[in-house]
Every structure is written in C-alpha cells, then in structure tokens.
From TrEMBL:
Keywords: Disulfide bond, Glycoprotein, Lectin. It is a single-pass membrane protein. Pfam families: Lectin_C. It comes from Gopherus agassizii. PANTHER family: ASIALOGLYCOPROTEIN RECEPTOR 1-LIKE-RELATED (PTHR46490:SF6), C-TYPE LECTIN DOMAIN FAMILY 12 MEMBER A-RELATED (PTHR46490). It is found in: Membrane. This is C-type lectin domain-containing protein. One of its GO terms (cellular component) is plasma membrane. One of its GO terms (molecular function) is transmembrane signaling receptor activity.
Length: 185
C-alpha cells in the first residue's frame, strides 16, 4: 500500500509538472503566433500618412497591380486597349467587374488616369434601358456628369464624365473594380 501511495504521489507530481510545461508551451506558441501575424500585417499593409486607414488595427489589401484609394474597393486600369466585350472578359477573369459609378462621389475613389483617354466602364444598353454590370438600372434622373446618346450602346469614362460609343468594338482602356480584402489584428 505504501509503495502504491509513493507511485501515485510521483505520477501525480509528474502530471502536474507536465500540465505546467504544456501551459507555458501554449503561452509561448500564442505569443509567437501573434508576433508572426503582426509581422505579416506590417509587411502586407500599406504604410503612409498618419491618418491613413491602414495604419490602424486593420488594413485594406488589393492584388498586385491593383490600386486602392480609400473605401473598400480595389481598381485596375488596363494597360492595353480592348473592345467593351473584351474589357468585360478581362475584368471577369480577374474576379471583378468593369467600373460601376452610380454616384459622382465614386469618381473621387478612382485612381489617377490620363483624363484625355476613354475608359470602358460597366454600363451598357439593352433594348431601351441602360444597365450596370451588377444588373441594376441606370438612375433615370438626368445628371450633368452623364451624357448618353440614344443610339450608342457601351458606356465609357472620359475625364470626369460618363458617355457612350456606338461602336462597342472600338479599342479603349478599361477600369475594373473588386472588393478589397480587410485584414484585422
């Protein structure tokens, strides 16, 4: 009985030591994991001005060759001219859509571009109505920054105005957009 008591005491003592070691190992692993995540965030997130949204506990990420201005959208401005349909396919292949501009304020978010060039956007005419790439109809309210002609079918951005071309096969640059990824810590 005495021998059994001694063995039980030793096993119990070893068990408590192992639990203590496991707890310390767990704390060390959590600390190292947190440091690694912070290092990854620091490497991935944009740095910049003091008021930059990405200097806080979360940041916004965009794919390589895409630009983030603010908000929750990444933009891609093509480097080759394509037809409207080819531009739509280019964006689709990158899990994005041609630019959708439902209000003038969004133009402030679009990255700098040559304002003397035409850029295809996600606006097209189907039958007698205009639709955005997401399927929503263009607002019927006449805006001074939207100038569409009745017989032209594909929308473009030129400077700060939206217009349209009769020939959707004409080659222009395009602007794609997709949701940015938010990384939080």
């Amino acid at each position: 009985m005495l021998a059994l008591g001694i063995v039980f005491f030793q096993v119990s003592n070893d068990f408590h030591k192992q639990i203590g070691n496991l707890t310390r190992n767990q704390e060390t692993l959590q600390t190292n994991f947190s440091k690694r995540l912070q290092d990854m965030k620091n490497r991935l997130c944009l740095k910049g001005e003091e008021n930059n949204e990405n200097n806080g506990p979360s940041c916004t990420l965009c794919p390589a060759n895409w630009q983030w201005m603010r908000g929750d959208t990444c933009f891609y401005i093509s480097v080759q001219k394509k037809s409207w349909e080819e531009s739509q396919k280019l964006c689709s292949l990158q899990n994005s859509t041609l630019l959708i501009v439902k209000d003038r304020d969004k133009l402030n978010d679009v990255p700098a571009r040559d304002k003397r060039q035409y850029y295809w956007i996600g606006l097209h005419k189907s039958r007698d109505n205009w639709y955005w790439e997401d399927g929503s109809a263009l607002s019927p309210v006449k805006e001074n920054w939207i100038d569409l002609y009745e017989y032209y079918n594909c929308g473009y951005l030129f400077g700060e105005k939206i217009g349209n071309h009769y020939y959707c096969t004409e080659k222009n640059f395009c602007i794609c957009e997709k949701a940015a990824v938010k990384l939080s810590m």
